[in-house]
Amino acid sequence: MTDCSELNKRDRPSWDEYFLEITEVVAKRSTCLRRKVGCILVKDKRILTSGYNGAPTGMDHCHKTGCIREKLNVPSGERHELCRGLHAEQNAIIQGALHGINVKGANLYVTTQPCVQCAKIIANAKIKRVIFIGDYPDDLSSSILKEAGVLLEQHKK
Length: 157
Prior knowledge:
Belongs to the cytidine and deoxycytidylate deaminase family. It comes from Proteinivorax hydrogeniformans. With 157 residues, the protein is an alpha/beta fold. It is built from seven helices and five strands; from the N terminus they run ααββαααβαβαβ.
């Protein structure tokens, strides 16, 4: 007979692994031509909201309009204001605001480390912990989250 506790340790993902895998599915909804990012907000092991990067609701997606940052050869991590899209973290927090969901104290799971713009929004939303998979070239983001008391953890696959 199989010991269920041993089976769970071997085959069952941790909560962080579970939620990060979900962010990878959410990222598949992204309409960005350059980077697919998915995010979920979780409190008490329950998903509150999700978000992915793309144009605002009701607006044309980048596959229709083209990517201005790509046309101008803007490197990753620079000149975010030129992009018509919202970031996954922004969309997840906005979904909470739109639907009356309190995200204060939640964990934010995201496929890519947040940029500085998202870090400031995360700090103001009082998110307590950010768990991400992929690096992003933005040291200021890390320092803002640290100063705000937000735990930042990279999950290694």
